[in-house]
Amino acid sequence: MLTSTGELLETARRNLYAIGAFNVYNLEGVQAVIDAAEALQSPAMLQIHPSSLAHGGSALIALCLEAARTAKVPMSVHLDHSNSEKDIRAALEAGMPSIMADGSHLPYEQNLIFTREMTKLAHSKGAIVEAEIGRISGTEDELSVEEKEAKMTDPDQAVEFVRQTKVDALAVTIGNVHGEYKSEPRLDFDRLAKIRKLIDVPLVLHGASGLPEHMISRSIQLGVSKFNVNTEVRKAYVEALKESFNPQKSPDLLKVMKSATTAMQEIISNKLEIFGSVGKSYLHQSPYAGMLGVTTGK
Ligand code: 13P
Fold first, then answer.
1. Domain range holding 187?
2. 82 lines ligand 1 (CB under 6 A)
3. 36 has a pLDDT exceeding 70
């Protein structure tokens, strides 16, 4: 069932687990997320990156929304990392429940103005907004941010940013990167704890591919309610395609698509386990959703 992103994140936050948001490119990706979530009775999010949107357009949005509507578990659809007012408007018009207004490439004052405007727009359509303060490095599809341009989230600036923009969720940069970690991941948990203490909206951690389980669990304890996952799932997809390739024989396309979906589903299932959302779909379906949980201890 198509569910509001706000409800997913708030219920997860109250009950100390996190929602997995998985970047999807096509039907196989969408099916992999839904099959994993349904098999494990877990809520989840389908997420569209701007490069993927440029390729799939409104048909990709429609696919995700319809798949979420007919899913047997709570599912929302989110526009990831958008710095385009045009794309944000298109996503909202189509009925997407949330967008990420990403002005993190802009100087602080301009990021503030862009995010505030996009938040007003999204709220007028009943959608919610995630934004980023600080800047995450790494590569995702065609978007790259060099390590030297990366910037950790400043907790005091984050407070001011949330207050001024009225965003509903905040993506933090605490040592996380997009793509593969070139060395052992190191997250600044003191910084995360400080941000959590000062800020009341759900926190988001991008670059969850390659993060060890203990770091994910600690992040959840310190208030992260959404993890973005792309690289590991995409890699499983490409590896499955490679394995299906046989130069002697033309492959059965449906079999290839199915094996790619199964490979992605395995990775997604493992992430849902680690995020603690397995078996939690009933909390979102319950009329008491959001009222049953423990507090974050804030
Ligand atoms: P990874 O590709 O590192 O999993 O990051 C995904 C992400 O943060 C999407 O916004």
1. 5-293
2. no
3. yes
